[in-house]
Amino acid sequence: MDVSFTGTQPIWDRALTSYTYPPFTQLWAWGEAQKALGKGVVRQYVQTSAGPVLAQWVQERRGPFVYWFCPQGPVFPAELSSHDRESVLNACEAALPAQAQTLFTRIEPRLRAQRGSIEERQSWDGGRRVRSLNPSTSYVVPLHGSPDDVLERMHKKTRYNIRLAERHAVIVRGGTPDDIPVFMSLLKQTEERDGFTGHDEHYLRTICTTLCQFGNARFRIAECLGKPLAANLEVLCGDTIMYLYGASSSEDREKMAPYALQWSAIYTAIQEGRRWYDFGGGNPQDETSIDFRPSWDGITRFKERWGTVMAAEPGTYDRIRRPWLYKLFVRR
């Protein structure tokens, strides 16, 4: 089975976005961003009777160990049988470079239909289930109906805060890559206020710049009297807008600028004819799940109040090549 991809970016992205709710980390631009960060990237493509299978792999290193990671992938047509999925995956793994050094492959399979629901729980057999790197549960706003319909499905407190931002004269504008310094400044305030450390500046600049260059991302800035109060980076991927990164000022918090920002993004997505606005990861319903994090309770409640539905994915799996060395890896 020939799994190599020799086509171009438009062909790749057109195949990916033929599916509903496609994963943004399988976009061509995401692979180019990983290359710019110095990582090896391999793209594989298999045309099946049910639709295309896409796998964009990133080579990762941890000390002496090498493994290949397929973030939010491979992407399989939902109608493809489990037997055929396994056959394609085996062929993809066998064709990866550096076979002698590969300790394991790490996958986050996505099963997608041309049109369909994102609420159906999907299962996966094969591999060792590990805590998800990209969240296995996301909270997504369905964009069917008018803007008023979408607004009505939100929690009343969310609607109140949107109106409050309007009364405070918060204005939302589109941003450009020139706004990266504004975004970085707001992100630093967010990290200091909330007590976490995110990606380093080089990583974020590379991701933001590359995705924007390919037309797969855009900034959105909320201001009051010309002062930036909040900023988001959105990823454009087929019928879906992904809220990837957000940051806000530690000043003027009573103006509710992040609410104006999110509503502006959702409204724009509706006007563009998108189907989903993805708020990203949150907790699964099952508190015994390997992916449940008590620290995510607050952010999960926030996302639930935007009229979201819960999109469940199979999770992250390690497919082990060298069991004894893998045991050393997981102990590190």
What does this structure look like?
By secondary structure, the chain is of the alpha+beta class. The protein contains ten helices and 15 strands. Helices cover 33% and strands 28% of the residues. The protein has a seven-stranded mixed beta sheet, sandwiched between helices. Strands 1-2-3-5-15-7 form a six-stranded mixed beta sheet, with helices on both faces. The radius of gyration is 20 Å and the shape is globular. The mean pLDDT is 94.
Fill in the keyword field for this structure.
alpha+beta, 33% helix, 332 residues, seven-stranded mixed beta sheet, six-stranded mixed beta sheet, 15 strands
| Outline type | globular
- Terminal CA distance: 36 Å
Give unreliable regions as ranges. none
Question: Rg, please?
Answer: 20 Å
Sequence of secondary-structure elements:
HHEEEEHEEEEHHEHHEEEHEHEEH
Helix/sheet category: alpha+beta
Provide a count of the helices: 10
* Percentage of residues assigned to helices: 25-40%
Give a count of the beta strands, DSSP E runs of length 2 or more: 15
Query: What's the average pLDDT?
Result: 94
Largest sheet: 7 strands, mixed
Query: How are the strands of the largest sheet arranged?
Result: 9-10-11-12-13-8-14
Strand content: 25-35%
